[in-house]
Amino acid sequence: MPQDACDVAIIGRGPGGLQAAIHAAGKKVKVIVFGRPERSSLYKAHVANFCCFEEIVSGKQLLEAGKRQAESFDSVFVEQDIIETKSENNRFRLVTENGETFSAIAVILAMGIARKKLRVKGEKELLGRGVSYCVDCDANFYRGMDVAVVGNESAAAAGALTLLGYAKKVYLVCPKLTITDLLHEQLNHSDVKIIRDAWVKEIRGGTEVEAVLLTDGDVLKVNGVFVELGAKGAMELAANLGVVFDAETFSFIETNKKQETNIPGLYAAGDITGQPWQIAKAVGEGCVAGMEAAKYAKRLARS
């Protein structure tokens, strides 16, 4: 098996992803885990009322212990964001922010559902009418229009580059851009208009987005605003794969009792499968997803 290929790829370093890694790797398959521990909502939290822990323990301690456990079963950790997912020839292709490509027989989505917001005037009021949190879901609606992407990390940079294939003009509002050298180079050689000296103060519009007011007083005339703060989330990464989300809110991935999605070989665990948002649920689902994904990968490897 090539170095960039694995049996099971896990996207997400929270409790669900770590438990999935422990159980999948325990089944003697090659496991790679993608993401950064600080992305987990558990990283800065303190945990109480968790089974077998009488004392309060820090989330960071739990995550570090989980990584050591997973590594003891030979799981490999790659501290990069995944910015693209594709399904081809019974395998999944994953592209990192560094431009590295990995392939996997099975994938487990375990990156949580936290959707960071700008919390500015007009954002809530114009949601779905020009304000979006998913470039991959909504880019097609802005063909030939002017749009702005707001964010300082890989999701924003990758989103702005994607929108160049649809929009007439793309602004990237990013005072402090924390991305890889590759993404920097791609942005610098693209037609994305980068705004480094201001942030979004207000999103303006009547029935639809019409403009963005920046903190330096400038106004961008745009038809759409994509809020992409942090790394790509479940919806963005799953959108191109045809994953079914819950019909009511389109916020959670639907799974069965084996944590299978509607896509063969694709599993989900933790907060992205819905409430309750508890570590115990994430760990339990991660356990099931890890074992089932390993079983699936072994079956396909033999066929």
What's the arrangement of secondary structure elements?
Elements: E1 5-11, H1 15-25, E2 31-34, E3 46-47, E4 57-58, H2 59-72, E5 76-78, E6 82-88, E7 91-96, E8 101-109, E9 131-132, H3 135-138, E10 146-150, H4 154-163, E11 169-173, H5 181-188, E12 193-195, E13 200-205, E14 209-214, E15 219-221, E16 224-227, H6 234-239, E17 266-268, H7 279-302
Describe this structure in words.
- This protein is an alpha/beta fold.
- The chain folds into 2 domains: 5-114 and 233-302, 3-Layer(bba) Sandwich (FAD/NAD(P)-binding domain), CATH 3.50.50; 131-227, FAD/NAD(P)-binding domain, CATH 3.50.50.
- 25% of the residues lie in helices and 25% in strands.
- It contains 7 helices and 17 strands.
- The protein has helices at residues 15-25, 59-72, 135-138, 154-163, 181-188, 234-239, 279-302; strands spanning 5-11, 31-34, 46-47, 57-58, 76-78, 82-88, 91-96, 101-109, 131-132, 146-150, 169-173, 193-195, 200-205, 209-214, 219-221, 224-227, 266-268.
- Helix 1 (15-25) packs parallel to helix 7 and helix 4 packs parallel to helix 5 (181-188).
- It is globular.
- The two termini are 15 Å apart.
Structural class: alpha/beta
**Tally the helices: what do you get?**
7
Largest sheet: 7 strands, mixed
Q: How would you name the CATH homologous superfamily of the largest domain?
A: FAD/NAD(P)-binding domain
Strand composition percent: 25-35%
| CATH-level-2 architecture of the largest domain | 3-Layer(bba) Sandwich
Mean pLDDT: 91
Question: What's the end-to-end separation, in Å?
Answer: 15 Å
CATH topology category name of the largest domain: FAD/NAD(P)-binding domain
For the secondary structure, the number of strands is: 17
Q: Which residues sit in consecutive blocks of at least 5 with pLDDT less than 50?
A: none
